[in-house]
Amino acid sequence: MKLGVFTPLLSQMPLEEVLAKLKTLQIETVELGTGNYPGDAHCKLSMLEDSDALKAFQQKLADQGTTISALSCHGNALHPDPEQAKRAQEVSRKTILLAEKLGIPVVVDFSGCPGDSPQAKAPNWVTCPWPPEYLSVLDWQWNEVVTPYWVRHAQFAADHGVKIAIEMHPGFVAYSPETMLRLRSIAGPSVGCNYDPSHMFWQGIDPIAAIRILGDAIFHVHAKDTQMYPANLSRTGVLDTKPYTDEPNRGWIFRTCGYGHGAEWWKEFVSTLRMYGYDSVLSIEHEDSLLSPEEGLRKAAQFLHEVVIRETPAAAWWV
C-alpha cells in the first residue's frame, strides 16, 4: 500500500510544482480532478482532442516518476436541472475516455441526487421514511432516474475498461454501505466505491466494520479524518447544516488524518483494507478547516507514512 494525494488542495500551483512538492514528502502518486466539483486545475479533458498536450502532460508525470491512482470528476449527473445534469454527465463520460487513454483503471464520482419529481428544480435528499410521501419520492428517484442512468453509464465505463468508484457522501443517493451496494447491484461490477472513512464517522458508521461489508466493492480510498464534538452533538445531531467553518458550534468537522483518530485506529483501518483485498493507494484529501493545505498535507503525510503497509508479508512457515 502507498500514499497518494488528491491534488485540488494545491490547485493554485501548476502541476510541475505540485509533483515536485509531493516528491519531497515521499509521495509519487496523485489523484487528479478533471472537472465538476474538484475542478480541473491539473488535468484538462481537452487533452482528449490534443495529442501534443497529452504527451506534454504525460512527460511532466514521467519526469517526476509520478503515477496516477484515479481521475476524479465528482458531480451530480442526476441533477433535476437538465443543463447541470448534462454538464456533469459529459465531464464524467470524457473522464472515463481520458482514463482509458492514459491506462488509469479508476474514475471517482458521486452517485448524484435527483429532485422529487420531473418538475423539480433542486436535488431532494431523502433522510427518513415518514411522512409516507418521502418513500414515494425515494422510489421514484431510484426507479425512474438512478437506475436508468447508472445502468447505462456503468456499461459505458465497462466498455472502455474503466471502473467507477462512487464516493459515499450524504446529500447523494449512495451515502452508506447499504445504499452503495444497492447501486452496485443495479449497475453491475464496474461500479464500486471510493472509500472515505470521514464520511462514515459522522454518520455513526464504524468505518472498519464497513470495510467488511463492502469487501471487493472498494476500488479506491481517501485518507481523511473526522473529529466528533459530543458537547455540540447532543444539540445538533449528525445532520448538522452549519458551515464547516463554524467549528465551535458544529457537532463534527473534517480533520487531517491523526487529528480525529490516532495511529492505532489508522493501523487497524489499513490492515483491514488489506485483509479484504485492497492494497493500492491511500489518497490524502485535505478538508480540515483548522489547518492550512500546506500544514494539513505535511502532517497527514508524516502521520500516514508510519501506518501504511508497504510490503507483501512473506509466507508463514505454516502455510
UniProtKB/TrEMBL annotation:
Pfam families, alphabetized: AP_endonuc_2
Protein name: Sugar phosphate isomerase/epimerase
Origin organism lineage: Bacteria, Pseudomonadati, Acidobacteriota, Terriglobia, Terriglobales
Keyword Cytoplasm carried by entry: no
Record GO terms (molecular function): isomerase activity
Organism whose genome encodes this protein: Acidipila rosea
Keyword set, alphabetical order: Isomerase
Domain Xylose isomerase-like TIM barrel: 20-305
